[in-house]
Amino acid sequence: MKPVVDRDLCIGCGLCQDTCPEVFVIEDDGLAHVINESPGHELYGQVRDAADICPVEAISIVGE
Length: 64
Ligand code: SF4
Description:
Alpha-Beta Plaits, alpha+beta, 23% helix, binds iron/sulfur cluster, 22% strand, 64 residues, two-stranded antiparallel ribbon, two-stranded antiparallel sheet
């Protein structure tokens, strides 16, 4: 799986970082960035939860 954030949609709410800080981080631009583009299996559930919780559906998951 490869998580991707569409920063044209992201509003910087931080919910993805709260849900899976190993993968999503709010950086200096105030928007979410993916810091781990190939998370291990143990993080798949959290990554999917982050995608589900994003209020603007800015997170997509490639390769599954
Ligand atoms: S949950 Fe969505 S809108 Fe909120 S910071 Fe993450 S990517 Fe951006």
